[in-house]
Design brief:
alpha/beta, 3-stranded antiparallel sheet, globular
């Protein structure tokens, strides 16, 4: 049996990738590009593992700099992802337990897992242990700026593709406009599960009014109704409303998630693989969610997240962001495919992801 390789070198690349369909917007964001930090970790056996982190158009340089700070501390160590994760998290914790630090850890951690499974000649998903051969998918749109007719066509397309559900943005200045849009969607596409995303845009009183007005739609969930770090506010809200709450794309650590789990304020867990410290961080959060009988519905990094949840028992579905998969963004050339509404992960050793190096080189910063 081959020995576990040690870390020989780490190379970083950062790119600012434009959005092919134009800017994204919701209640609080205006996003014109995605910044990606790519870590290529070369082992003593010559095998290269690749990992990623991302931001919505800013602070990529900060993440890259923090990764560079960690590199000298891990050179020469065995490629043992969990051990390396704990070592690096302890190393950087004093400059912040969450946020930039966990973003930076994600790029390295994913690369370690990719390198280790490639060295063993096995798919990462098989190495972690699949509990299903394919992952269910739901359709998601960054569509608050679109007309209701355009949103309806999106939802119809997702249903026809065999997806499990649809998610649309809410947060119009007039709450009644949101109500009208949701009514038209359900009239046009009946008997299709529907969720909405408020993107942290409401105060507690605003959220209470919205939840009450949306009750008649029997929504799957309302996502990020309050600012993500308002843990107490989510508890108060959850105690006073009936519709399930989804959160997690802007929550970064096992401890933060566990506070939501213990107080009962989270019904769907939307951890982001690129923000929670990579695969090691994600699997820890998934295990804690499972202990509370809560399903994982990962955010962004679609190809990677959809493949990872084939190894996670407690899953609802992966989020396919319309025009926002990493293949759509040309960060990836390939890495699995959708088949009849389900994601089928790649079978090549490692993550199976093929990065579009030429395109990223064009957009380096």
């Amino acid at each position: 049996m081959s020995e576990v390789p040690t870390i020989k070198s780490i190379k970083l690349t950062s790119a600012r990738v434009p959005l092919p369909q134009g800017p994204w917007g919701d209640q609080i964001h205006h996003v014109e590009n995605i910044e990606v930090v790519v870590a290529d970790v070369t082992g003593s056996n010559g095998v290269v593992g690749t990992g990623f982190s991302h931001t919505s158009g800013w602070c990529g340089a900060t993440i890259k700099q923090l990764v560079e700070e960690m590199i000298p501390d891990v050179i020469g160590l065995p490629v043992s992802p969990r051990g390396l994760w704990q070592r690096s998290y302890k190393y950087i914790h004093d400059v912040g337990g969450a946020g930039v630090t966990t973003h930076a850890l994600s790029a390295l951690d994913i690369a370690y897992w990719d390198l280790l499974s490639k060295s063993l000649g096995i798919s990462l998903w098989d190495m972690l242990g699949k509990v299903r051969q394919k992952a269910p998918v739901y359709g998601s749109g960054i569509n608050l700026n679109l007309s209701i007719e355009e949103v309806v066509e999106q939802v119809k397309r997702w249903k026809a593709a065999g997806y499990m559900a649809a998610k649309v943005k809410v947060g119009k200045p007039d709450l009644e406009e949101d109500v009208e849009r949701l009514s038209k969607i359900q009239e046009a596409v009946p008997d299709f599960p529907l969720a909405v995303d408020a993107n942290q845009g409401w105060s507690l009183p605003d959220a209470l009014r919205a939840f009450k007005r949306f009750e008649k739609f029997n929504l799957l969930w309302i996502e990020e109704p309050l600012p993500s770090d308002d843990i107490v506010g989510h508890k108060i809200l959850r105690e006073r409303v009936n519709t399930p709450i989804a959160l997690g794309e802007n929550t970064y650590t096992l401890n933060q998630f566990n506070q939501h789990f213990e107080q009962g304020s989270c019904d769907y867990v939307q951890a982001d693989l690129g923000r929670v410290g990579g695969i090691t961080g994600y699997l820890d959060i998934a295990a804690a969610a499972r202990a509370h009988n809560l399903p994982m519905t990962p955010h962004f990094m679609f190809e990677m997240c959809a493949s990872l949840i084939t190894t996670v028992p407690n899953v609802y579905a992966a989020e396919m962001t319309d025009g926002g998969t990493w293949t759509d963004l040309r960060i990836f050339k390939s890495g699995g495919h959708i088949e009849n509404g389900f994601w089928v992960p790649p079978t090549a050793p490692g993550t199976g992801i093929v990065v579009d190096r030429e395109y990223l080189e064009e957009h380096k910063f």
